[in-house]
User: Which sequence fits this backbone?
């Protein structure tokens, strides 16, 4: 009889959701495999998920709280660690006000509800996330346009899929995993891929549109031009359910002819027409878009235009199109997070709230506003910080400014697995548990209609899951929390009639699948229609109609600068191995991707005497980074595509090589470059020059 125990749980090595069977022997996880019963991943598991044992048991993982003393880390107890952090918070509250406390999270550990509850009850309006440029930005824009976030319905067998700046086979985005897309594709769905780079999916596509980086909004408006000109839209839907159609038609006809869109996007007008026809006439059709469309000044306008495409073609809330999945009835994040605890007076103090109104609506602070408050103490000072599961020194734009800001704080606490470059700046380190060490109702904030049981498999060292850290820290601040994490999950699940123990046994819940809900109640917008003309943006003084704005740093907007920096840098290349700045210390994954990669066209490489595998310097007006060259005929000779998130855990110094190959040494976070209502940071279109490193 085997002494190996099998435990079902849910992965969170990236955005999560894949079902896992963990094999436990002698109190240790010896391997993980995909769970074939998972309604999300059907038994598949990527390299990141499979490598979780190397993360959990890595020799460099920090397994106990630590406090910095005279520049050296000293082991301390949880009581001392939490008392220290709480004491600093109270000191700042009394002296400067709670708004001078900055808390921030990354995108990897599924604790949003507990994190927000801590911040709201602290009284700070200043919570930074990745949301200003990833996922929450599209949610914010879709809420203003159609009232909810529409996710592609792969279960409804779309006959046409538009993969817009996304590769779910590599990146496993929020709504569905790559396996869901692949099943639909294998059933014969037509595939349109929009990407500056000819990758795996582009090679499989019926149509590949090689777009100039950052011009997605213009291309989407070009699609609309074809659909309007050829009358391919759903007349009944448009007449009954679209607000501002006539004004939108006038703008599209006057400002976005196919000749003009071709000039902007570099995509042949005939190819634009062919793709728009295919999408509009092949029913049902769905659009699956990724973060590249959100990481530039056109973030909001692209999302609104894309939702417009879904709507006017009759593919919105239609089976196989883009649908509003019903959640399974757990408490909402808003209710759990106790947003009412943050009163209007404090909420009005949110950094950048008067400027980035859409971000403010989602309680998101654009990081640049936080760095300004730390460095310039305007409009008031930020004195202490608490960062959870994030490494902004590597992952945020203008890395030098981020480093300077975090280093200037009076006090910084960090919760993570390892001493990252960001964690090395901290005064207190709180050791977090991996997803193998976590109980949670997973994916409660997503829009695919499921919640999943992530149950704790093991306990390692003195590590705590983030939810427990928030609870125990909050209690020290006099906040109302539950006795245990399990109690908080019971509260989250209460509307379903289940408790945590029952939910663990069941494994997941799915909301009701119901389509065309707008026919009964309309859309959740002020006009009850799809607002292609936004009454909300109009009220804020922004342009109510979608448009394309030229990227602030491009050959078009800055031809003089382009003479010195002639190439367009796309600075957010993803890989199937790493999750943003995580996993660089894992042997399996570093074997697959040992070095940071920059892709360039062979003609470009030849021009600079660069060969495959050569190390090269990429330089922008803000800094430089060193990466290894990979030649690719499937990108424009004018474009270079660079991997993000690199630092070197193997470098045994406090800086961990954060400034060597970090592409965010080059990126821009100036207010002028950001989306005007969301504050999305421009990471996808920058100007650069490349040179071969002399020391190979």
Assistant:
């Amino acid at each position: 009889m085997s002494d190996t125990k099998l435990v079902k749980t849910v992965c969170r090595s990236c955005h999560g959701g894949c079902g896992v069977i963990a094999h436990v022997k002698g109190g240790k996880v010896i391997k993980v495999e995909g769970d074939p019963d998972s309604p999300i991943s059907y038994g598949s598991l990527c390299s990141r998920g499979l490598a979780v044992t190397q993360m959990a048991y890595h020799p460099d993982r920090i397994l106990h709280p630590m406090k910095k003393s005279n520049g050296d880390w000293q082991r301390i107890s949880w009581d001392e660690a939490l008392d220290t952090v709480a004491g600093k918070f109270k000191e700042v509250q009394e002296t400067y006000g709670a708004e001078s406390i900055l808390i921030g999270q990354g995108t990897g550990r599924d604790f949003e509800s507990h994190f927000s509850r801590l911040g709201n009850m602290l009284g700070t309006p200043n919570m930074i996330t990745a949301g200003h440029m990833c996922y929450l930005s599209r949610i914010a824009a879709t809420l203003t346009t159609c009232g909810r976030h529409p996710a592609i319905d792969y279960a409804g067998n779309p006959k046409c899929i538009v993969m817009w700046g996304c590769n779910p086979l590599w990146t496993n985005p929020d709504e569905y995993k790559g396996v869901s897309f692949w099943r639909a594709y294998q059933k014969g769905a037509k595939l349109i891929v929009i990407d500056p780079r000819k990758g795996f999916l582009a090679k499989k596509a019926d149509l590949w549109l090689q777009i100039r980086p950052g011009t997605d909004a213009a291309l989407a408006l070009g699609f609309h031009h074809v659909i309007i000109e050829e009358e391919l839209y759903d007349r009944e839907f448009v007449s009954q359910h679209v607000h501002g159609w006539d004004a939108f038609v006038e703008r599209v006809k006057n400002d976005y002819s196919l000749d003009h869109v071709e000039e902007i996007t570099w995509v042949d007008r005939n190819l634009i027409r062919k793709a728009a026809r295919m999408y509009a006439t092949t029913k049902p059709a769905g659009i699956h878009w990724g973060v590249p469309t959100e990481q530039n000044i056109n973030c909001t306008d692209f999302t609104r235009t894309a939702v417009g495409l879904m709507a006017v073609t009759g593919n919105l809330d239609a089976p196989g199109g883009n649908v509003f999945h019903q959640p399974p009835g757990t408490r909402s994040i808003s209710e759990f997070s106790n947003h009412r605890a943050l009163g209007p007076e404090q909420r009005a103090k949110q950094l950048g709230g008067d400027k980035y109104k859409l971000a403010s609506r989602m309680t998101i602070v654009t990081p640049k506003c936080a760095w300004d408050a730390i460095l310039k103490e305007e409009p008031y000072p930020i004195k202490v910080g608490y960062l959870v599961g994030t490494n902004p020194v590597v992952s945020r734009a203008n890395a030098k400014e981020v480093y300077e800001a975090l280093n200037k704080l009076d006090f910084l606490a960090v919760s993570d697995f390892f001493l990252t470059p960001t964690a090395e700046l901290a005064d207190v380190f709180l050791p977090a548990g991996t997803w193998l060490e976590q109980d949670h109702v997973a994916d409660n904030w997503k829009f695919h209609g499921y919640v999943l049981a992530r149950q704790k498999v093991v306990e390692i060292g003195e590590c705590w899951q983030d939810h427990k850290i928030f609870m125990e820290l909050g209690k020290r601040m006099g906040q109302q929390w539950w006795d245990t994490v399990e109690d908080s999950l019971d509260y989250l699940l209460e509307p379903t009639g289940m408790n945590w123990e029952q939910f663990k046994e069941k494994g997941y819940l799915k909301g009701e699948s119901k389509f065309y809900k707008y026919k009964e109640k309309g859309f959740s917008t002020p006009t009850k229609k799809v607002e292609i003309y936004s009454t909300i943006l109009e009220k804020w003084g922004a342009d109510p109609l979608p448009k394309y704005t030229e990227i602030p740093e491009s050959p078009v907007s800055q031809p003089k600068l382009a003479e010195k920096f002639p190439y367009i840098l796309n600075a957010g290349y993803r890989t199937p191995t790493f999750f943003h700045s995580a996993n660089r210390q894992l042997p399996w994954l570093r074997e697959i991707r040992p070095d940071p990669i920059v892709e360039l066209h062979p003609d470009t490489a030849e021009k600079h005497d660069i060969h495959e595998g050569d190390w090269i310097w990429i330089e922008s007006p803000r800094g430089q980074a060193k990466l290894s060259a990979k030649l690719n005929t499937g990108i424009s000779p004018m474009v270079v595509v660079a991997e993000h998130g690199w630092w070197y855990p193997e470098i045994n110094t406090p800086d961990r090589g954060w400034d060597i190959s970090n592409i965010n040494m080059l990126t821009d976070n100036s207010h002028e470059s950001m989306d005007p209502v969301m504050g999305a940071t421009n990471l996808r279109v920058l100007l650069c020059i490349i040179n071969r490193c002399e020391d190979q």
Observations:
- The two ends are 56 Å apart (CA to CA).
- Residues 147-324 form a domain with the Dimethylsulfoxide Reductase; domain 2 fold (CATH 3.40.228.10).
- The chain has three domains: 66-135+343-446+450-510, 147-324, 559-692.
